[in-house]
Amino acid sequence: MLAAYAVTADADDPLEALRVDQIEPPAVPDGWIEVSVRAAALNHHDVFSLRGVGLPADRLPMILGCDAAGVTSDGREVVVYPVVGDPLFGGDDETYDPRRSLLSERYPGTLAEAVRAPARNVVAKPAELSFAEAACLPTAWLTAYRALFTSADLRPGDTVLVQGAGGGFATAAVSLARAAGLRVWVTSRTPERAERAVALGAHAGFASGERLPDRVDAVLDSVGAATWSHSINSLRPGGRLVTVGTTSGPDLPNAELTKIFFRPLRVIGSTMGTRAEFERLLRFLVATGVRPVIDRTLPLADAADGFAAMIDGDLFGKIVLEP
Ligand SMILES: NC(=O)c1ccc[n+]([C@@H]2O[C@H](COP(=O)([O-])OP(=O)(O)OC[C@H]3O[C@@H](n4cnc5c(N)ncnc54)[C@H](OP(=O)(O)O)[C@@H]3O)[C@@H](O)[C@H]2O)c1
């Protein structure tokens, strides 16, 4: 089958590690279901995989991709919840399972004509969502949903700052936050993407690092090193910084510890979401009419073009691939 997969790791030139070609379809383990992929979506996670982050050489070649929607062999239209848990984990919050992985980390991913997932990970796709829209949701949108409503515990009327405007996570956070009655501010490296975020629903857009008119209740930061100090400085006393990613790198020149304890702030790590949160996210979209922004839709065979746009930061919203 056709798939986009990593054949090696290249920290400096991730496109060198990518192959888009025929690959032997992986076996379907007992208790797993095969889904014929109608649409898959890219995440920055896939770029990190090509750079070798979280994907050791002994797991290569590895089909990339966490997100897909498609059809089961018995004709059900589904979307795949991508967190594969340890069956022995007893807790009810999958993100606390120390042995969890995402599709494409330990098991083959979604950028292919077909993907396999545990039966409990195959969730009914609401008829109101297209395959392309549903395929955008499992990683970026689920992470934004949990970051806003569980990790930051935001309420209607609160103010949230989203660092970065153009990405899949950032556009999801802006759309969900606006629909939930929050005041939404974003930053961006380009005025064009800040303006597009305002058109999407943000109340104001600022240049990266710009001083804000007021302090905020919470910041969602997926950028990491480049925005950390601004995130800390933008919070009101008692505010929450939810960190979900390190697109610009994880090494901080200044962790701002004095401000964190003196204000006093809370720093909260957040990753993906539970299956129950994923089902609530689907219902949220159906109830509100909010839909993912799709930057572009490409044939799976042209996956390299989508990866190049993501590596260059030349996108607004999600990149969808169709087999
Ligand atoms: N913890 C989790 O489970 C989880 C889930 C989803 C995503 N993530 C992480 O979140 C990050 C974003 O993922 P994504 O798929 O949304 O990626 P993406 O679509 O490539 O978006 C990248 C985002 O980062 C901003 N950005 C990049 N470099 C920047 C810099 N140097 N300074 C300021 N802003 C910068 C961009 O904003 P502008 O271009 O508008 O400035 C854009 O919003 C990744 O690190 C990813 O691994 C984590």
TrEMBL record:
Residues 13-321 form the Enoyl reductase (ER) domain. It comes from the Bacteria. Pfam families: ADH_N, ADH_zinc_N. PANTHER family: DEHYDROGENASE, PUTATIVE (AFU_ORTHOLOGUE AFUA_2G13270)-RELATED, PTHR45033. This is Zinc-binding dehydrogenase. It comes from Microlunatus ginsengisoli.
